[in-house]
Fold this protein.
Amino acid sequence: MYLEEEIKNLSLETASAETTAQLTKIEAKYLGRNGVLNLKFNQLSKSDKSKLGKDFNAQKQKAVRLIDDRQTKLDRIEENESFDITIPGILPPIGHLHLVTQAIKEITDIFSKIGFIRRRYPEIDTDWYAAEGLNIPKDHPARDDQETFYVSENLVLTPHTSNGQLREMEIMKTPPIKMINIGKTYRRQIDVSHTPMFHQFEGLLIDKDINITHLIGVGDYFVQNYFGIGRRVRLRPHHFQFTEPSFEIDITCGICDGSGKLKDNEKCRLCKSGWVELGGAGMVHPNVLKNGGINSKKYSGFAFGWGVERVLSMKYNLPDIRNIYTTDLRILNQF
Amino acid sequence: MDIKIPDSTLRKYLDTQATPEKIAEALTLCGPSVDRLHWLAGDYVYDIEVITNRVDTASAFGIAREAAAILPLFGIKAKLINSPYDIKPSALPERKGAKFPLDVTINNEDLIPHFAAIVLDRLTVKDSPKEISHQLELSGVRPLNNLIDITNYLTLCFGQPVHIFDYDKIIGHKMILRESRSGESMITLDGKTHQLKGGDIVIEDGGGNLIDLCGIMGGKLSEVDERTKRAVLFVQTYNPKKIRRTSLYTQERTLASQIFEKQPDSRLVIPTLIEGVNLLVKLATAHVAGESIEYYFNKSISRTIKLDLKWLDRLIGHEFNFQTTSSILSNLGFAVKKISTTSLEVVVPSWRHHDIAIPEDLAEEIARVYGYFRLESKLPITANLSVATDQLLDWEYQAKKYLSDLGFTEIFNYSLVGKELFEKAFMASDHSITLTNPLSSEFESMRRSLIPSLLMDLERNQGKIDQPIKIFELSNIYSPKEHPILAIATQSLDFRHTKGFIEALLLSLHLSNISFVPVNEEQDPWQKNQTGEIYSDKHFIGIMGAIKPKVKTSFNLNGDVYIANLDFQIVSDLANTNHTYGPVSEYPDMIEDITVQSSLSLGKILQLIKQTSKLITKVFYQTSMKDKHTFTIHFNDSKRNLTQDRVNKIKESLLKTTQKE
């Protein structure tokens, strides 16, 4: 039979192939474009080719079958081999974004969905932007609450992000103004709920006919998105020089949902009253609008300034806010 | 300012069936916040936060007035009773027995808007009755004797500080109220000696002694004691700025000073004096021994505000009916007159003159007493489509995210640093921004570089966590302008891997043509031979290098330490997302390993190889043996299959150019 020798060799070689890779090589050796079978056949004269063409094709098919059969066998062996899939994977190095960065990103995204533009204003600013322009005159007792760090008589480390209010009004010139200013702020305090450096996010919305219900709406929208569906805000009276009226904003406690009581009628230990304090807010004071060059007869607005670390510690029940500023990688690598 | 009001004191001025819990809840929602309500020795006590502009609520009567206005909105009847404003001048007892003179001189009317005093005789000093001492104790004041206790009790009830002097200790029975002179000194009741800066309000007696640091604390010299027979009862209001200044620098933040600096109502001065005299008559056998001496320099004129009701509804986002609006205001003591169907004329009561000046103030009163919690929640539809966020903020997050994806941990260090940290890193410690009132020397300046903080972070973590350590911080520096810097530090990671991370980061931000150029000058903390300036095209973007051994020793650091310090403002300016599409070659690469011999730097050799031919599409450095360097080079022609001949020609010229140099 034509090519008998070659097919015999092929048969021996396939039988001894232990892996698919070996078998693929054998296939290329015999059946490739320049493989043994083709080379042999191409050496024939034209007339021999037409004479032996039929045999050649039959032998070629036989070769294919031999290889396929072996492949089927090899597949079966491989499929039945034992393999321990509990072997640990090889991990790429895993890094960690700081909790504050994660929170700022989350807050930015939440507010950007309803059209608040992220801003950043100076951390070191003049007394005008940080206090006087915000309707806090020199020697005013309201300055007591601020615990401000001074660089000089006229230059401070901003104790809040509210310095961005006047700066935003100056840049935008006419409403609508809709910003979320996130930045570093500083106060002369250090204890379980204060670090001398922290971050605030300052919302400012000024337009025609902006009223208190809009502040409540934006507050509800934020807490539902940040803390979870069902959470809501409540406003209580307060006083800030740069807003009128001014509010303290509470949110419903995540444990007892605002009732102050647990299922067994016990007092909720986290909040005591059903509400936890979020931060201050208010309707922008007409003097502040005036200082920012905005006509307070035509436009009204609200502003709020809340602590990034504050919302973080509320969300994750962190007992000591100073832990956020640890440099211990064993802690930072958990986030 | 926090005060404690016993429930029993509150109910002397508030007639209501409301429980203390309900009162606390209603006040918190609509008025002064009750931080805590607690049961103490047979009475409830409200812990109340008095906000700075509402000194009129710093008393039992003030809280009762708020509660009487607020509780009706909760459907609970409440009535304000025993108002001190109803005390008539005729309620002052007449003089009985001998008359004792008191000569008062007031040098500067601006210091004391309202002054009242009266001399009392035949006093008996003893303990106060249980009822008064108990209420004082609950409010956090230590009872001393009936005279002192009565003054404190008046403050608790009316929020008006009161002082009492021993009449016989006032030399010449003379009081000169004046500003202090710089360098004068006096001893206050707490035994402290104060060196006065001048400009403080003080009283000098006939002997030239200072007997009162007005509005802050009485002087030791005229203190009442168990032998006191005659006394001067003393009620005033003072210039608030003067009081605040003195109280701050003497660090005497007394209750009296905290009230006086917030402008209590002058109209309470006389009623308080009369109530005080009556209490002293009743509890200390006092006999009036002279006329009451009164000066009223600064009679506040009445203030009227026009309130547009349509405007009110718009600002609050709620439609109020006239009835609600006017009853809220009148319950708070405002006089309301309707001038049209849409506007009111509102007269501000004397105790609110300092905090109610504009219609917005009235809007606050109406909305809060009505209850903010009753208002609707609405999302505003305002949009501003033509404003975009500063790209810097987006790139910052992208860079941080990318580094954390590469296995780096982000750290936030305080911007506030001390000199020592910078000296430890052998870096200049003369910061341009230094605080005048730092918390401590550790937090006294705004840092000019992030590097010392990162070295400290490595020191703190070394030995606690597996090496290599890879950290970064992206924060502003202050020199003195605020400027964003991205600082990246590695420990126990070699130069090539650290550099690879930096290059990968810059590539991810699509910066073009990144190159590293050796630095020319020696500068701490960098080790010069392993430090380079980083460029993108011609733009300098930062430095990367090894930290000097002496700096590592200073921070006790072992192993390689590399830091990259990138000017992130420039990185952000150069970063882009303007991707352009480039076609992919249909033909396969030819790949060859080539070894060149050259004394040039690898960077230069790589550059020369790439310049040799456009058909060289990729070059990978493999290894070096002395001055022999091996590269894997990819050749590709996007128009046709490459032949070995063409590749060989390129290789030849490549070897020539690299060896020639």
User: Anything to note?
Assistant: Chain B touches chain A through 84 residues (CB under 8 Å).
